[in-house]
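Worked example

This section walks through a single chain of length 239. The input is the sequence exactly as stored; nothing has been trimmed or padded.
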Amino acid sequence: MTEALFRSEPYARTCAAAVISVDTAGIVLDRSIFYPTGGGQPGDTGMLQTADGRTVMIANTIKGPDGGVVHVPVPDAPALSPGDAVTVTLDWDRRHRLMRMHTCLHLLSALLPYPVTGGQVSDGKGRLDFDCGDALPDKEFLTAELNRLVAADHAVGDVWITDDELLNSPDLVKTMAVKPPVGQGHVRLIRIGTADTRIDLQACGGTHVARTGEIGPVAVLKIESKGRQNRRVNIGFAA
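Given that input, the structure is written out below as tokens.
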């Protein structure tokens, strides 16, 4: 199992690690700051470097069996072997954009109190699909409200609850298509705002910024009909 530093230290840009295994899927380390694809958030990119000068560029990061984080190298990258010590360096600018967008999508879900039927975090943009019934979200209103919540610079942090607490609070799972992992005894929630002035609280395993002010100006780019009741809201950075 890989120690998931990306969860406890989302702002870490580099770390030391050791190679556990290498196969056709990729490279597994004993610890990593790279987030693996999941929950609508893309996997991280960056590089692994050894003391003898080998540099392995990482094109993607995915989840492996048994809790491993698999770092997928670019074609024809230098070979690594189990036991190799490496310096892990994250493509921070890309990751930070993904963190900003992921947190912004949580704000969007707080503004539209409907079941979320799908979503995707992308570099510089993102989307959520809502089962809105007959309601039609207003593009200008959502843009103004998102920027109001961003400018208010609300704190963003995590809260841990037990599996049983989650089962007794189904409203904490907003995305119908993606269920949080259970079976380990505890589940991570992302809270925006404080316990007294809560903006949003939902189960999530992704990476997020520490305050909404980091997101920066955003805009609702378009709202699409995806079926009789499904509405897709696309957002992007305005600057």
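What to look for: The mean pLDDT is 92.
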